[in-house]
Every structure is written in structure tokens, then in C-alpha cells.
Design goal:
By secondary structure, the chain is mainly α. The protein has ten helices and two strands, in the order ααβααααβαααα.
């Protein structure tokens, strides 16, 4: 029974990835509402393109993903690391994730994990490193976003981002925001 469950989740995850890749080819953004509900994954779209060498990734929310979600989304992640990911919840910054998971693996491995996970961004409290998880946000824009606080709402924050990042990046950024 347990073995069947793992196989089922891997098949569902592979199906979700196929749905995301198909969506990416058509729109430039992988959307995941249908696939997410079918596979039980907490997902957010990640930039994808139609050019060679680019792939679509599924990122999971470090604060809400289940162990199965982590195993399905993060290549090579074992049960021990799933436990460690979940032990330090709730994550309030990507720095916290780096510090806590860095106790078990080196910085290169932590950076690899970050390709598949995210810490929800609280628009009025996130540090610069956490803001830089948002597509298109680099050092200078993160500093500008912090200097423009407080934001009345997530929509106010997204309005500040408009024109600073591409429309595709803006859509993705919305999925990273913590709910107030």
C-alpha cells in the first residue's frame, strides 16, 4: 500500500510537470491550478520559455507544502531532509531557510534546494534576500521596495512592481506573496 502511494504521487507529479510544460509552451507561464488540485501539490509557476535549454520548474511553499509535495518537487530530496524542511516552520525569510538547512548541507546544496522552494513574501516585513526570490527583483529593486514601505496591501506592492519587472514576472510574483 505504501509503495503504491509513493508511485501514485510520482506519477501525479510527472503528470503535473507535463501539464506545466504544455502550458508553458503556449503561454510563456506555467500555470498550475488544475494540476495542483489533481496531485495535491502546493505549487507556483516559475518562468519558462520557448527557447532551448529553459525548463519549467514547480516551486513549493516552504510553509504549506506536505512531505509528499517536497519529495515530488525537489529532485533527490530524502525523507530526512523533508523532516528538516518541515521542522523549522514557519519560515519568515529565505535567510532563515538557508541558516537552518545549512546545518545539514553545504551552501551549494541549499542554493540547489532554493530552485524548488520559496518562502512566502510578506510585503511589509520581508528582508532584501527574501524579496529577491521574486522574479526580476535584484539588489537595487529590493532596496527600493523596502524604502517604499509600508504597502496598504499586496495589490499596492504589486502596483509598485508594475513597470519594474515583466508582466510574466509580475504574475509569478503574485503567487509568492503571503496572504495578509
Amino acid at each position: 500500500m505504501f509503495r503504491f502511494s509513493i508511485v501514485r504521487h510520482k506519477v501525479l507529479a510527472a503528470g503535473l510537470l507535463l501539464v506545466l510544460l504544455t502550458a508553458a509552451c503556449g503561454s510563456g507561464v506555467a500555470t498550475s491550478q488544475t494540476g495542483a488540485s489533481q496531485a495535491g501539490l502546493v505549487v507556483t509557476p516559475v518562468l519558462s520559455g520557448n527557447t532551448a535549454g529553459q525548463t519549467t520548474l514547480v516551486k513549493v511553499n516552504l510553509n504549506t507544502a506536505s512531505g509528499d509535495d517536497f519529495l515530488a518537487a525537489v529532485p533527490g530530496l530524502g525523507n530526512r531532509m523533508v523532516r528538516e524542511f518541515m521542522e523549522y516552520r514557519p519560515y519568515v525569510s529565505i535567510q532563515q531557510f538557508r541558516r537552518e538547512i545549512g546545518k545539514y548541507v553545504d551552501a551549494a546544496q541549499v542554493a540547489e534546494y532554493e530552485k524548488y522552494v520559496f518562502v512566502p513574501v510578506s510585503v511589509n516585513e520581508a528582508d532584501a534576500e527574501t524579496l529577491k526570490q521574486l522574479p526580476g527583483v535584484g539588489d537595487a529593486l529590493a532596496v527600493d521596495l523596502i524604502a517604499s514601505r509600508p504597502y496598504a496591501s499586496n495589490d499596492g506592492f504589486l502596483a509598485k512592481l508594475t513597470g519594474q519587472v515583466s508582466d510574466t514576472e509580475l504574475v509569478i510574483a503574485k503567487t509568492y506573496l503571503a496572504t495578509p
